[in-house]
Amino acid sequence: MKNILLFLILLFTISISGYSQNFEKEFDLLLSKEYPISGPGATALVAVNGKVIYQKAFGKSNLELGVNMSVNSVLEIGSITKQFTAVSILMLVEQGKIKLDDDITKYIKDYPTEGHRITIHHLLSHTSGIGSFTASDEWYDNRKKDITKAEFLNLFKKLPMHFAPGEKYLYSNTGYFLLAAVIEEITNKAYEEFINEYIFKPLEMKNTYYGSRSNIILNRASGYDNVNDKRDEEFNSSETVNADALNFIHFHSAGAILSTVHDLFLWNRAIRNNKLISEENKLKAFTNYQLKDGKYTNYGYGWATEEISGISSIEHNGGTMGFRSNSIYLPKNDVFVVVLTNHTYNNPDYVSTKIAAIAINKPYKEINTNKVNIDPAFLQKIIGTYEFDDGSIKIISQENNELYSQRPNGSKSRIYSGENKRFYFKDSFSNLIFHINSNEQPSVTYENRIYKTKGVKVK
């Protein structure tokens, strides 16, 4: 029996080693192309069946000092923080201290709900109708100022409801900020104290922190931005600047955590193995929730529900000033991929998704972004602001004969023309398909891997 066990262990070890060697060159090629040694960098990790098969770093952690990125580099993970907030709430549910259908005014007593009943579930699933404060002009104009949690709550109270709870999906940083207020009211602990005591320490996530600008954080990477509001075709150090260093209270429970790829692997295993919450509550976090009209949101509690090459995946990306992140988990294959970067415009979503597809032996084909000539008159017609069914807004503009897409208060992303009035985002699975009806009214369909929403030109 002992010999059989040793044989199986050896066989499994050889299998994992072969797995790693087969894909290492492909992963290296993807990442080194996206994150060259001369520019801001990235850390990446791939695990299969709970074993790390790939872990490498590319580019620079600090450009000014010429410090290379390392697998131990600590980076801001942005909205992946929402997973920790959601699990904190579910932990309190299991302790009997809160219910998912509780009205938020039970914990935030004077919050204006405009006569609606907003529940904890609505906040977790982005279906509350509360807009995201990061899309408001007031926040954007004051983003470099220090502000207290109480002042943030006062700002939120000014934001109008966009729709009745449960009617639509609208990604809301406000909702996850409010969840921290709920956690603090119930536990009488600061949010950052709660996640450190009940998540980071028990899981031995020794290089994961609630963000601080003043504390010394070993191996912290510097964040970079571009001086112009669009990503360079190729990295150019003269176009790169230090990103704005906002106070972490601006991100808080929606995006204030810093971590490493290995600590996020520990987080993945803890969730997978039900170390913090039960199987029942994990499935609630991974559920693709429905709206009142039966449409799906493609979001659970802190995890987006997607698919990669036809295989269901649980994911979340993130972004702060100077940092981008993406983590992907495919439960059926037990494959975990995470990529963290220290440059606003080096979006890791595309490369991490391609890595995940390769890891399950279902690689994506390359998208042809060779320029297709489009009638200039058509381009003029589609330039403008579009409002989508999901509540989002995109601004389509033209500069130097090139087309760009931009969210309000967001950065511009170049879109590349393809066949049949379809425009692609570089290094992305997202695209825009423009239409003009018989009344010369432009409309557009936005698509990514599984999500689709339609928009009409409003100005």
Question: What does this 3D model show about the protein?
Answer:
The chain has 459 residues and is of the alpha+beta class. It is 29% helix and 24% strand. The chain has 12 helices and 21 strands. It has helices at residues 2-34, 81-94, 120-124, 137-141, 149-158, 173-187, 191-200, 252-255, 261-272, 279-285, 349-359, 376-382; strands at residues 42-48, 51-58, 60-62, 67-68, 75-76, 209-210, 224-226, 240-242, 257-259, 304-308, 311-320, 323-330, 335-341, 384-388, 393-399, 402-406, 412-417, 422-425, 431-436, 442-447, 452-457. Strands 14-15-16-17-18-19-20-21 form an 8-stranded antiparallel β-barrel. A hairpin with a 4-residue loop joins strand 14 (384-388) and strand 15. Helix 2 (81-94) runs parallel beside helix 6. The chain is globular and about 60 Å long. The termini are far apart.
Summarize the structure.
The chain has 459 residues and is an alpha+beta fold.
Radius of gyration over C-alpha positions, nearest whole angstrom: 22 Å
Shape: globular
**Structural class determined from secondary elements:** alpha+beta
Number of helices: 12
- In the predicted model, the low-confidence regions spanning at least 5 consecutive residues are 5-18, 229-237
Number of strands: 21
Taking the sheet with the most strands, its summary is: 8 strands, antiparallel, barrel
The proportion of residues forming helix, as a percent range, comes to: 25-40%
Task: Give the integer mean of the pLDDT values.
Answer: 89
Share in β-strands: 15-25%
Distance between the termini: 74 Å
Which strand order does the major sheet show? 14-15-16-17-18-19-20-21
